[in-house]
Amino acid sequence: MGKSFEYSMLLSIYNSLRDNQEVEIVESSSLPVAQGMYEGLSTEEKECMASASNAATRVLLCLEPQLLYRGNNSQLRLSLQEDRVGQAGDVRDVLTIRISNSWEIGISCKHNHFAVKHSRLSGVLDFGESWFNTPCSQSYFAEIAPLFSELRQLKEQEVLWKDINNKAGRFYIPLLEAFIREMRSLDILYPREIPAKLVEYLIGRKDFYKVIADVKRRVTQITAFNMRGSLNCHADDNQPQTRVQLLHLPTRFLDIAFKENSNNTIQIYCDGGWAFNMRIHNASSKVEPSLKFDISLLSYPPAIYNHHESWE
After folding, report:
1. What pLDDT, on the 0 to 100 scale, is given for residue 90?
2. Nearest-angstrom CA–CA distance, 21 and 67
3. What residue segments make up the domains of the chain, in order of their start?
4. What pLDDT, on the 0 to 100 scale, is given for residue 102?
């Protein structure tokens, strides 16, 4: 459904603008995949997708005058990004580009999906290197090595997670405690850097609009992550109808601790209003020598643009 929603969003922007200007859908390896998934939907599902996408487009046209005002008759190009760019910190799915104006905005599309990241921890994965470009300490790997060694043994025995007694006490809690200690150590080693890099890793290293289709409520949520000032710009003398404020990255951790009454979830609070909920879990019924984070936004700066547009 996520890929189908990306294609539906692309179509919505294209259909809204093609009669008044030159709009090109750029060929990419992602396009036929998303198109095929979209075309496999039922008529009812396509109508639902169109309602969600059109709601987002209505709002984006008020926020981004560059979509409407072509300036020097420059062509508008629409494209779908490949999934691999997300691994490098670019979470945008749909791009709208005017090459002659050196202008570009991106949209991250989610269908009934509110998490920001699903990251793994294991005995060999270096979250410090991949998240912050700063390697974890050897003491961290030494601390978690027995946990993942035991998980490898259980995998070889083809044990299922449901058959493990006290999995939280044996695996979740000690791993999260080691993770918290390492986060605090990295923050001491690189003061004022790690909180900002955490937000960039979890949210995205480029500005973008996050568009979430909430099917149950029949609304589309549009959130602007404008941390570098590239969103909501004017087009010549044409100003946005609605202003989007610049967001500031955090510089301090206020707290990193277990969620109250939880043995598998920690919460990270930063200055500026940023906070994240991080739940560790087994991603498979079979035991594997890795565990997965389900990470969601707990709160964000009060200045953030966050709009809910009804489909009706």
Report:
1. 82
2. 10
3. 2-114+205-248+304-310, 120-198+249-299
4. 86
Distance separating alpha carbons of residues 265 and 275, to the nearest angstrom: 13
CB atoms within 10 A of CB 289: 17
Does the pLDDT of residue 50 top 60, yes or no?
Answer: yes
pLDDT of residue 70: 76
* Token pair of 26 as six digits: 């750029």
Q: Which amino acid is at 127?
A: F
Q: Show the CA angle centred on residue 240, arms to residues 234 and 245, nearest 5°.
A: 90
DSSP, residue by residue, 2-53: HHHHHHHHHHHHHHHHTTTS-EEEPP-SHHHHHHHHHHTS-HHHHHHHHHHH
Which residue, among 222, 14, 11, 208, has the nearest Cα to 92 in the 3D structure? 208
The CA distance from 222 to 220, in Å, is 6
Helices (H) and strands (E) in the chain, counts: 9, 12
